[in-house]
Design a protein that fits this description.
The chain is α+β, with helices and mostly antiparallel strands.
């Protein structure tokens, strides 16, 4: 027959066994702990007499205090000291952080002021730069400089909001916004100017625009007295005096139209160019090109001489547009390309 573990007799036996087991194994430990606790309580309840003995003949003051009471007050004092020290250290750190923030704030104000000064300086420089851009743009065909730097009007304000007062931005913000708008306008202008310069460069490259030889002008275009007859005459070109044999160069790309001998002009070279230009070079000593030959700007075509009706070594230089002779001096510069 099986034993029922839940019978009262069995439970009592189990309880006795467990109690006996704990008593055998932990009884000494528990007894030792109880003894130590008893001694600790007895020691804590011991009284300490504190006496205040005055130097005079007054009554001596004394009172009794237990060790537990002294320990309690010592603990309170120690805790107070620790907590106070923590707050003092934390307060010192906070003061240091505040000092750093103040220093950083001062430096930030200085930096912001520098930025403001630089923005205002940039704005002033750009205002001085605008007339130069305007002048360059005015040279391009179809330019409208009246509305070039026009600003938009102030937008219509909405219904008044009495609860919020609108604060106008600083002048530096307005300046940088204006510079930004005008830089965008300048970018568009520079694109148009660049296109115009490319077109002008193409024209300059294909029109007479360099000196035909190295020398100096001794007779200009226009009315003068003839050095031979001393009578008034119209001089249709310029005389450039140079050393004998100095190179004569084509002043624009073109095609040699004619090489001829003239009793007055001597050995003469004529070159046809684009846009109806024709240039001629007279009194040459000799030539280095042939009729019908294509020449480039700056290419040597002959050499300075004294052929024809002249007493000096000169290059008589003429420019003709269609059938009209023009003054060559405005076309002279040092651009070789």
């Amino acid at each position: 027959m099986a034993v029922n573990p839940f019978k009262d007799s069995n439970l009592n036996d189990l309880q006795q066994n467990i109690t006996q087991f704990l008593s055998d194994h932990f009884g000494d430990i528990v007894a030792s702990l109880k003894e130590k606790w008893r001694r600790f309580v007895l020691k804590g309840r011991e009284k300490i007499t504190v006496m205040f003995i005055p130097h005079t003949e007054k009554k001596i003051i004394n009172f009794h205090v237990s060790i537990f009471t002294i320990s309690f007050f010592v603990g309170i004092v120690a805790t107070t000291i620790v907590v106070t020290s923590f707050f003092i250290i934390n307060h010192s750190s906070t003061i240091k952080e505040v000092s750093k923030l103040k220093k950083y704030g001062t430096n930030s104000k200085i930096q912001i002021q520098k930025y403001k000064d630089e923005i205002n300086k940039l704005y002033t420089i750009f205002q001085k730069f605008k007339p130069e851009i305007t002048h360059l743009y005015s040279l391009t065909p179809g330019s409208d400089i009246d509305s070039l730097w026009a600003k938009g009007g102030i937008p219509n304000p909405g219904p008044a909001d009495e609860s919020a007062e609108e604060i106008s931005p600083p002048i530096e913000i307005l300046n940088i916004q204006e510079v930004e708008r005008e830089l965008k306008t300048t970018k568009d202008l520079l694109v148009q100017i660049k296109k115009f310069l490319k077109y002008r460069k193409k024209i300059i490259e294909n029109t007479p625009s360099v000196w035909p030889t190295s020398g100096y002008i001794i007779s200009r275009y226009g009315q003068r007295s003839s050095p031979y007859t001393f009578k008034p005459e119209f001089h249709r070109g310029i005389d450039i005096e140079a050393f004998p044999g100095t190179e004569i160069r084509a002043t624009a790309p073109g095609k040699v139209d004619d090489i001829r001998w003239d009793p007055i002009l001597g050995l003469t070279i004529s070159i046809k160019h684009k846009y109806g230009f024709v240039t001629s070079y007279s009194h040459c000593q000799r030539v280095s090109v042939e009729s019908g030959q294509n020449v480039s700007k700056g290419e040597i075509i002959g050499y300075v001489g004294r052929t024809g009706n002249t007493t000096r070594y000169i290059c008589y230089y003429q420019i003709r547009i269609g059938t009209e002779f023009v003054d060559p001096i405005p076309y002279l510069n040092r651009i070789m390309q």
